[in-house]
């Protein structure tokens, strides 16, 4: 692998990781699905199985969530030909639709095996590692004013045009 090939592989892998986080947080599971090979497996803690089973789980579990937020660290990538082991630190927050349910804040690591098939790097196997979790703190005593643009899922999000551009490829 040349130095240029190495850089291109790292950039494509990083792009897949960012696209996944963006798609999940914007509620676009079809876009998130494009980050995996068709025969991928995923151990997401509360679910483990094929990627198709994972997205069926996301469909039902996601219906209980008001929002999610992924903040990714820089991935550590060990390339070996058409395979790469990748570890990415993630701060993750989820808030439920049920107003009585407490939000959760977690420190996670994604441990992924990426494979390049038909010239595309995608996730072949994912393991989510939970390092710590806390109940999310209560809302601020003085909330931000309504003039702030607020994140949302789907077309209501101020950055929805980015999601459409990512889906268009």
TrEMBL record:
Spans annotated as Disordered: 134-169
Domain of life: Bacteria
Pfam families according to UniProt: SnoaL_4
CDD domains documented for this protein: NTF2_like
Gene3D superfamilies per the UniProt record, alphabetical: 3.10.450.50
Positions of the SnoaL-like domain: 6-127
Name of protein: SnoaL-like domain-containing protein
Organism the protein comes from: Prauserella flavalba
């Amino acid at each position: 692998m040349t130095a240029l090939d190495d850089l291109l592989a790292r950039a494509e892998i990083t792009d897949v990781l960012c696209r996944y986080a963006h798609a999940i947080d914007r509620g676009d599971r079809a876009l998130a699905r494009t980050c995996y090979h068709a025969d991928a497996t995923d151990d997401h803690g509360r679910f483990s199985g094929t990627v198709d089973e994972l997205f069926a789980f996301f469909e039902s579990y996601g219906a209980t969530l008001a929002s999610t937020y992924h903040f990714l660290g820089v991935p550590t990538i060990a390339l070996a030909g058409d395979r790469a082991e990748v570890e990415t630190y993630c701060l993750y927050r989820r808030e439920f639709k049920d107003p009585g349910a407490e939000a959760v804040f977690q420190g996670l690591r994604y441990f992924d095996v990426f494979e390049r098939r038909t010239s595309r790097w995608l996730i072949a196997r994912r393991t989510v590692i939970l390092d710590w979790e806390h109940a999310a703190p209560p809302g601020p005593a003085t909330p931000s004013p309504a003039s702030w643009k607020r994140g949302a899922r789907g077309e209501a999000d101020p950055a929805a045009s980015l999601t459409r551009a990512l889906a268009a490829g």
